[in-house]
Amino acid sequence: MDERVEKQSLSKIKPGTKVRLAVYGRHNTCGYFDSEVIGISEVDRPYLSSKNFDNIILLKLFRELGNDKVVNFESDEIVCELMIKESKVVYKDVFVRRIDLPIAGDVHAIITHEKEHPTVNRRQFFRLWIGLNGTANTVDHLSANVIVRDVSVGGVGFICSPKFMVSVGDKVTVSFVDETEDRQFFIIMPCTVVRVDQWRGNTQIVGCTINQDIPNVNRYIMLKQQERQRRFKKPLRVSVYKDGGSSEKKVI
């Protein structure tokens, strides 16, 4: 599972820092976009404050690889994570918005969900976004329907109702099925809970370490990663702006 490191505001990231945006969409699609942090001028800062954009960084526009079109990330069907390329530190579940400022001009802004400091994690393993229905069971025979959020060779995260009362240190078994046209994966993972946090709405997110090496999990992650790499050039159905910065969009 990820190693928790210090909490750090987005606003502390220095101009010129290279970043990578991971965008997770429907049907286990994933895409990556690179950019660079831009400084916020004193002229632009009051505008951002008036919009309650306090925990924010500005980036050069993310563009579609190969044709230089600007990508629009304003969709309820995607989840975005920002990685600082040099340190590998990841900011989870960020908003990406395109804004026009007096000095910075036409840029993308990264904004966190948290009102204060975001949680920052350093990834030890490749984490696979899942987004599939699954089941979690405790040793006391409590059971819950969950959404398996992500899996790595070292851990799993899932979203569930707070009525599924688990605490750090509890033993749980998480399982889910992933079916494709040519194969079916039935994943069972004996785990230990390492964090329980409130999530959006009336839900909670539970993070676990996997208690033993599970070859089926390793193979599943490897094959899914290979599939995503093959689809890298056109990974998502997201909107892109036409050349010239027009507000008109089309779907790729």
Task: Quickly list its features.
disordered C terminus, six-stranded antiparallel beta barrel, elongated, mainly beta, 46% strand, 252 residues
Describe the structure.
The protein starts with a strand and ends with a strand. The longest helix is centred in the last third of the chain and has 16 residues, at 215-230. It is built from 2 helices and 18 strands. Helices cover 9% and strands 46% of the residues. The strands form 3 sheets. The protein has a 9-stranded antiparallel β-sheet with strand order 1-10-7-6-2-3-4-9-8, with no helix packed on it. It has a 6-stranded antiparallel barrel with strand order 11-12-13-16-15-14.
Task: Please give the structural blueprint.
Elements: E1 3-4, E2 18-24, E3 30-38, H1 45-50, E4 56-59, E5 71-72, E6 79-84, E7 89-91, E8 94-101, E9 105-112, E10 120-122, E11 128-138, E12 143-151, E13 155-160, E14 171-179, E15 184-198, E16 204-210, H2 215-230, E17 239-241, E18 249-251
Antiparallel strand pairs: 1-10, 2-3, 2-6, 3-4, 4-9, 5-17, 6-7, 7-10, 8-9, 11-12, 11-14, 12-13, 13-16, 14-15, 15-16, 17-18
